[in-house]
């Protein structure tokens, strides 16, 4: 694996190998007083975030440090980007300075792919940590890992994804990955929050949340991305909550084994009731925890796996 830019077209065997590696790393760290593995000693990982982030940025930093890599954080506001430097020049500067891997979040769809092209000659790997409304592949991998933990397998499971699909890179990456792994994916949203061409996706589309819950093995709520909305996509937060919010009454419609996911940050009271978010059925903190191990696995496959295989 040279880069991780997308889950579209991902080989299921490769995805499962990354998930199995994450599980192995989780077991390797279990019970250790000092959570450190020497796997990436001598490697330099740079996180370059042009959008705000808590979970993704912190988990990548922890993942790198737990594997003994040198991790350097670059923010747009604190770099030469604020002076007008282009993304290409910033990336080439980081590669020239010795970055083995650049983890990038950018508001423009396709930015990570452009970056990978520019850095190909330098031999620097690129991980897409979210590009506009396009993709967020490591989020989909950690979601799949969490589903495997809770349900045993993704294959054959019915996953209901609810909310702002139109603006969600999380939804797109999950659709590609979960269907590749054999899941039956249902998208539930008002028509205004579904992207054009969704009819061609390998999913079922519904506008009625209550009708889909009795057969759901998992319900994944999406964040309503008001910062990407220009105009009225739904009448009000209250009406959105009435139609698409997951409350205690709706949770009772799901099978007893069904799990609740949310990529965060959550809009409590609108997308999800606090009683549901804090219930044993919710795996939201598990997603964050698994995100560290999955991102460790991604860094391993990018920076260490090939070397170990050839050793």
From TrEMBL:
| Bilayer-crossing regions | none
Record carries keyword Transferase: yes
Q: Name one GO biological process term.
A: 'de novo' UMP biosynthetic process
One of the entry's Gene Ontology molecular-function terms is: amino acid binding
Q: Which UniProt keywords apply?
A: Pyrimidine biosynthesis, Transferase
Assigned EC number: 2.1.3.2
Keyword Transferase, does the record have it? yes
For the Aspartate/ornithine carbamoyltransferase Asp/Orn-binding domain, which residue ranges apply? Answer: 156-302
What does the entry list as the binding residues for L-aspartate? Answer: 83, 169, 223
> What highest taxon heads this organism's lineage?
Bacteria
Catalyses which reaction(s): carbamoyl phosphate + L-aspartate = N-carbamoyl-L-aspartate + phosphate + H(+)
* Pfam families to which the protein is assigned, alphabetical: OTCace (PF00185), OTCace_N (PF02729)
Residue sites binding carbamoyl phosphate per the record = 55-56, 105, 136, 139, 264-265
Q: How does it assemble?
A: Heterododecamer (2C3:3R2) of six catalytic PyrB chains organized as two trimers (C3), and six regulatory PyrI chains organized as three dimers (R2).
Q: What does this protein do?
A: Catalyzes the condensation of carbamoyl phosphate and aspartate to form carbamoyl aspartate and inorganic phosphate, the committed step in the de novo pyrimidine nucleotide biosynthesis pathway.
Name by which UniProt lists this protein: Aspartate carbamoyltransferase
The organism named in the record is: Solihabitans fulvus
